[in-house]
Design a protein that fits this description.
Blueprint (H helix, E strand, L loop, with lengths): L2 H7 L9 H8 L5 H11 L2 H11 L5 H10 L6
Helix pairs in contact: 4-5
Length: about 80
């Protein structure tokens, strides 16, 4: 491998954006994928289960109650 070929691999990464994502980036917002990843990092399974359980009691709450019972107290 030549020195010039090695130098190219360390250059900037080029990403092709969809028209919607290009418009979002132009407005200074995150791309849809980055926004979804940020949302997922901020929500864990227990938080999501609690949000579903509080909105509609009795619908799927048996499984949510079991999950909450199995979560160690320091995770709550």
């Amino acid at each position: 491998m030549s020195a010039s070929a090695a130098g190219r691999s360390r250059g900037r990464r080029v990403v092709l954006l969809s028209p919607q994502d290009a418009a979002r980036v132009a407005r200074g917002e995150m791309t849809e994928e980055d926004e979804e990843n940020a949302r997922r990092r901020g929500i864990d399974a227990l938080t999501e289960a609690r949000a579903r359980g509080e909105g509609a009691p009795g619908v799927g709450s048996a499984n949510d109650a079991r999950l909450r019972a199995e979560v160690p107290p320091h995770w709550s």
